Structure to design on (279 residues):
């Protein structure tokens, strides 16, 4: 496990430049139609862990609840442009990107306006491809783009799946963990067949794991049997510090780098990088 990603203090983010690594940016939709499974927590903290490892990361908050936005210290009521303006208002993606307190980590914030985007998109041409069009050429400054999806299978999530290369599914270690996931996988397959032939389920992450309970272990076995190698070996523990960090507007890597949650997300980032050949 790499503990070199815990510097003293967090440097301010640098302006977006034109320099890029040779590899193409990976665009990942963090999706599950169930709420409260750790989508925003995973987008924030996987993104931050990758950024601390030297990658340039963009988190796109496409959830009207704006948890990823506030969890990265951005006041969604004060931003000039949000993901709503990008998806519905034709604002260039570059104009909506905000730096965070973490070097190399940037965010396209969300706003409550996004709640009405589903209705506004219905009558638009290529309504499923608005985010894809916005991303064209705009993600070249980044190594990884993480799209935090809303807890639904509506047009905003379809836009994210159409724009992404792959899907990361957080699954909570609780009863009914796999409930609805089969529907999500079917929708991913529909998007792959009709809109985005490159889309694949990159992985499944077990979240809120409580090692004291047999239930968590049983759910982990069930998920691994169902998804095989696509299930990450790293599990994210249930952690008070992990739950506290968003109220301070910081990812766990900055808030408490020696906590169990930070260690787990560093390990997840290392496994993610190995899967993508960048470790």
């Amino acid at each position: 496990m790499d503990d070199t990603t815990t510097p003293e203090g967090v440097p301010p983010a640098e302006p977006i430049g034109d320099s890029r690594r040779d590899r193409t940016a990976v665009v990942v939709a963090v999706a599950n139609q169930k709420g409260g499974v750790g989508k925003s927590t995973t987008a924030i903290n996987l993104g931050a862990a990758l950024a601390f490892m030297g990658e340039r990361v963009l988190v796109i908050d496409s959830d009207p609840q704006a948890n990823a936005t506030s969890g990265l210290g951005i006041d969604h009521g004060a931003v000039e442009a949000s993901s709503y303006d990008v998806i519905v208002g034709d604002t260039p993606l570059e104009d909506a990107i905000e730096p965070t307190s973490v070097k190399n980590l940037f965010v396209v914030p969300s706003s409550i306006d996004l709640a009405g985007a589903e209705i506004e998109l219905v009558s638009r041409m290529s309504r499923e491809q608005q985010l894809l069009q916005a991303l064209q050429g705009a993600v070249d400054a980044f190594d990884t783009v993480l799209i935090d999806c809303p807890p639904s299978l509506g047009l905003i999530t379809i836009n994210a799946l159409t724009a992404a290369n792959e899907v990361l599914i957080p699954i909570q270690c609780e009863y009914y963990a796999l409930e609805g996931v089969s529907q999500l996988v079917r929708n991913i397959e529909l998007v792959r067949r009709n809109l985005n032939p490159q889309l694949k389920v990159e992985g499944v992450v077990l979240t809120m794991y409580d090692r004291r309970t047999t239930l968590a272990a049983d759910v982990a076995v069930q998920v691994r049997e169902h998804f095989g190698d696509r299930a990450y070996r790293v599990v994210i523990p249930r952690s008070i510090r992990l739950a506290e960090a968003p109220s301070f507007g910081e990812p766990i890597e900055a808030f408490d780098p020696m906590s169990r949650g930070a260690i787990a997300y560093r390990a997840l980032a290392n496994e993610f990088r190995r899967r993508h050949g960048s470790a």
